[in-house]
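Try this one yourself first.
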């Protein structure tokens, strides 16, 4: 695919980073070969960088916690900061710099020095790809090499326009016996699901966008409100006549299961859900609800009533051409374990009731 974005190249890079293999990102004649810290090991690192020259790329959110000087240069918590290589910055120290959970256990030796980011756009794209791969956003990088993929390939991987319907089947569920499941496949191999409940009667459907939460949906976690919201949504849609539940595979507001559980571990240390994400180096909410708009379009529904407390869902659907004619609050009773989480959503992320 010369000259055009290739989602397959980005998917191969995700796979390689997950396996601990170095990958080269390039654009406009510049290139960076990157080694993901989370999946790397000292022996692989030695092969990657025998001269011990490679600097470390971190997110600004993480660099702020480490009190590294030039984080102000990065505009967002997920933007890149480059840490100069020093003799004491070996693979183990790189791991300690990458993972905030180790802060209490690892006395940081230092000092570490932030230096100008050599390739800011490539660095930002790498950190974004770490999020997609569900890895800590931290890499050792080496300039040059033949590019395996480009930043535009990552955008192509996430482009909602490439979503297609893969299969439909009848699926009676607790709370809604008359339901059909519709499975969607995206360009990156990601799978999303819609549950259409009841029989379409021409009226705008009652719709719920539910983001995957393994701990809440499956294990019954009391730390969030996802499980009860999911069950209540199915019941409310069934009770309304007809509607659609979109089950979006955006675990942890788009940072993946393991990174969400890292955020939980920071919450055990006292940080709230917003600060935990920032300290890990991620946006507070990394989800793209454009995918939901595309799913609704493929289901032939451009006018809906939406069950949510999150104005970002309403705004994004509207920006993608879905007419949200009504927002209906979807609030469930708090419990002692999720009280603070719900208060944070109200006070810091603009959730309305
Ligand atoms: N990163 C992170 N994700 C979380 C946390 N708690 C829940 N989630 C994820 O948040 C998503 C659910 O989002 P919520 O913010 O609860 O709800 P919402 O979908 O934005 O808004 P509503 O429509 O009003 O419910 C799921 O993907 C959960 O896995 C947390 O502490 N950290
Ligand atoms: Zn949850």
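Now uncover the answer:
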């Amino acid at each position: 695919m010369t000259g055009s974005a290739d989602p397959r190249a980005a998917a191969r890079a995700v796979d390689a980073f997950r396996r601990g293999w170095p990958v080269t990102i390039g654009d406009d004649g510049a290139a960076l070969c990157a080694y993901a810290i989370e999946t790397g090991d000292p022996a692989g690192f030695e092969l990657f960088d025998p001269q011990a020259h490679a600097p470390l790329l971190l997110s600004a959110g993480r660099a702020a916690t480490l009190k590294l000087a030039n984080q102000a240069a990065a505009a967002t918590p997920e933007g890149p900061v480059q840490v100069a290589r020093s003799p004491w910055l070996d693979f183990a120290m790189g791991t300690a710099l990458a993972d905030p959970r180790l802060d209490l256990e690892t006395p940081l030796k230092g000092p570490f020095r932030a230096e100008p980011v050599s390739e800011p756009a490539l660095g930002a794209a790498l950190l974004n790809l770490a999020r997609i791969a569900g890895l800590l956003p931290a890499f050792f990088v080496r300039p040059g090499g033949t590019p395996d993929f480009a930043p535009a390939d990552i955008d192509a991987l996430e482009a909602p326009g490439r979503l297609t319907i893969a299969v439909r089947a009848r699926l009676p569920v607790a709370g809604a016996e008359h339901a059909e499941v519709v499975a969607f496949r995206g360009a990156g191999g990601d799978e999303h699901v819609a549950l259409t409940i009841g029989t379409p009667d021409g009226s705008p459907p009652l719709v719920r966008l539910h983001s995957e939460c393994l701990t809440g949906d499956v294990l019954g976690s009391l730390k969030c409100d996802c499980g009860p919201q999911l069950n209540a949504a199915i019941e409310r849609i069934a009770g309304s006549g007809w509607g659609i539940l979109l089950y979006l595979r955006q675990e942890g507001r788009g940072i993946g299961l393991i990174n969400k559980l890292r955020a939980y571990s920071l919450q055990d240390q006292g940080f709230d859900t917003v600060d935990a994400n920032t300290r890990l180096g991620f946006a507070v909410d990394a989800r793209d609800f454009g995918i939901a708009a595309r799913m609704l379009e493929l289901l032939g529904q451009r006018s809906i009533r939406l069950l949510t407390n999150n104005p970002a869902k309403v705004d994004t659907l509207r920006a993608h051409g879905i007419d949200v004619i009504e927002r209906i609050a979807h609030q469930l009773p708090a419990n002692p374990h999720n009280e603070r989480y719900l208060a944070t959503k109200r006070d810091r992320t603009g959730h309305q009731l």
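Discussion: The mean pLDDT is 93. Residues 68 and 156 are 33 Å apart (CA to CA).
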